[in-house]
Amino acid sequence: AGYLLIAGDLVDGIGIYPGQENELTIKNIYEQYDVFAEMLRDLPSRVRIVAAPGNHDVVRMAEPQPAIPPEFTGRFPANCTLVENPCLLNLQGVRVLMYHGRSIDDMIGLIPGASYERPGEIMEEMLKRRLLASPYGMRTPIAAMKTDRLVIDPLPEILLTGHVHICGITRYRGVLGVNTGTWQSQTAFQKQMNIHPTPARAFVIDLQTLQPEVMDFS
């Protein structure tokens, strides 16, 4: 079986940053999800799709985030499973921890020398700390819950993140860390923030060997 993992953001959303509405082709959030659903329907039905939300999606900002609610996903194909952010998956015996990665924004300011250009280093810091979250009270809102879902336990074989729109890969003590980048070219907001995305690249990982391969569609 083949799997397609999408660690959020599934859509651009609306009102996420100043002036975003000037860049949007689709200004209706329901239509954004419908167009995304059509893209998923173009994929072979044998591929099992797992999709989690990010901070541009329609769910609450505070982490952990719930799965995208059904009123937005009516046109999604039957082979698509919607999960929370973060989410621990078991794919043929391989543990995959999927996290959108908003805390990277905060960790860049806390870790000396950290950069959006090198997301692999930040994933290593998450693994060292056994924690996906940044400290409470920073830019990434954290929901108060009885169980801390942002603790990395158990350790996965693969840590999958996104958010920064830049591909990155690392290995730390047997864990493969992958930041999957984006399918969107540089926005005006990213240009203003001096962020240079690496769009249209996909990571293919052999679940037996955990060897990654990058496919460049740009």
UniProtKB/TrEMBL annotation:
<dbReference type="InterPro" id="IPR007185">
    <property type="entry name" value="DNA_pol_a/d/e_bsu"/>
</dbReference>
<dbReference type="Pfam" id="PF04042">
    <property type="entry name" value="DNA_pol_E_B"/>
</dbReference>
<keyword id="KW-0235">DNA replication</keyword>
<dbReference type="GO" id="GO:0003677">
    <property type="term" value="F:DNA binding"/>
</dbReference>
<dbReference type="GO" id="GO:0042575">
    <property type="term" value="C:DNA polymerase complex"/>
</dbReference>
<dbReference type="InterPro" id="IPR029052">
    <property type="entry name" value="Metallo-depent_PP-like"/>
</dbReference>
<comment type="similarity">
    <text>Belongs to the DNA polymerase delta/II small subunit family.</text>
</comment>
<dbReference type="GO" id="GO:0006271">
    <property type="term" value="P:DNA strand elongation involved in DNA replication"/>
</dbReference>
<feature type="domain" description="DNA polymerase alpha/delta/epsilon subunit B">
    <location>
        <begin position="29"/>
        <end position="162"/>
    </location>
</feature>
<dbReference type="InterPro" id="IPR024826">
    <property type="entry name" value="DNA_pol_delta/II_ssu"/>
</dbReference>
<protein>
    <submittedName>
        <fullName>DNA polymerase II small subunit</fullName>
    </submittedName>
</protein>
